[in-house]
Amino acid sequence: MTQVVAAIIKKENKFLLARRAKHKVHGGKWEFPGGKIDLYETPEQAVERELYEEFKVKTETLKHLVTITHDYKDFKIELMAFESVVTEGDFELNDHDQIAWLSLEEISDYELAEADRELVDKLRTIL
Ligand SMILES: Nc1nc2c([nH]c(=O)n2[C@@H]2O[C@H](COP(=O)(O)OP(=O)(O)OP(=O)(O)O)[C@@H](O)[C@H]2O)c(=O)[nH]1
After folding, report:
1. CATH topology of domain 2-126
2. Nudix hydrolase domain: from which residue to which, for each copy (predicted)?
């Protein structure tokens, strides 16, 4: 099972989502930014590294919020979501073609990565 981390970044009741670039696996789908955990890395280090690679922003990981698993048939992921805050930098797009700040209601209108529907449902109950 592939371990993936995702950052939940909240600003005035809106959450940061990013759209995966067309050429990537699940291209065109919206997700919470993050990626696979590298060998010898903690989940927190992975979130912070990914956010820097993807957007050139520095973040601090506050706490683990929820973990879900999803079976994409050809691979299975364990998706761990962490509450993060941006401490430095302005968003620059590298791996995504768009970002958006959305309320939990607005998120329903976006085409999410399959695994994220359950994640959003869980977030609704705790945030
Ligand atoms: N970052 C992120 N990935 C997600 C989410 N939901 C979800 O199904 N995934 C899936 O988890 C996997 C994460 O891989 P990735 O491609 O973003 O990770 P990476 O940057 O480390 O990988 P790469 O360097 O191989 O491209 C992808 O298959 C992605 O579609 C989510 O909310 N955030």
Report:
1. Nucleoside Triphosphate Pyrophosphohydrolase (3.90.79)
2. 1-125
